[in-house]
Amino acid sequence: MVAAPVSADPAGDLIDQAQAAQGRGEKELALRLGQAAIVADPARTAAYDMVGDLYAADGSTEYARFYYNKALAIDPTDANATKAVAALDHPDGQRAAKADTSSK
User: Fold this and answer.
1) What is the pTM of this model?
2) Structural domain boundaries of the chain?
3) Residues in CB range of 30: below 8 A, 6 or more apart
């Protein structure tokens, strides 16, 4: 039996899979894959941004804010999280944050 090759970037692969699932409309799978990416590499801000985007797209702004703030705690210069938090703080923040999820 031949073992599957081990990825050099498992968290990146999980983020890619989460984005693909989101694109197919599989929100729960996308969320689970995004959370798995966080477990695989807790220092990768893109994983927190991805999960925050998923929650923002569903209108769960408090969960979205939690994940964006986690990303900012790791990297205070994370442009995606900074932009997303600013969008959540704006009166039309949910709409702006949702619009951003389709471009990532």
Assistant:
1) 0.80
2) 10-101
3) 18, 19, 21, 22, 54
In sequence order, what are the residues at sequence separation of 6 or more whose Cβ sits closer than 8 angstroms to the Cβ of residue 71? 45, 48, 49, 52, 78, 80, 81
Q: Which two tokens stand for residue 93?
A: 């923040």
Q: What does DSSP assign to residue 9? A: -
Helices 27-40 and 10-23 pack at an angle, to 10 degrees, of: 170
Q: Average pLDDT over the chain, rounded to whole? A: 87
69-91 pLDDT per residue, tens: 999 999 999 999 999 999 998 86
Question: Superfamily assignment of 10-101 in CATH?
Answer: Tetratricopeptide repeat domain (1.25.40.10)
